[in-house]
Amino acid sequence: MARNQRLLTDVDFQEAVDSQASVRVFKDDHIVDSNAVILRFSATMVVVQTHVSDLTYYDRNECEFFEMKKR
Hints:
By secondary structure, the chain is mainly β. It is built from 1 helix and 6 strands.
């Protein structure tokens, strides 16, 4: 079973990048992406990849990011 950990700080995002953890992205209380890997992030933008050629850019202030950790 997996548990969710919300990514808030730059340290949280960097740990998710380093471990290539799967993340879920929520916008307006809806899942907009799942099983994505964070490639890059900045203070305003997060770039995730779900498939080989599928890159998506999300506004960091408009979305919530949750790392999926296995128990």
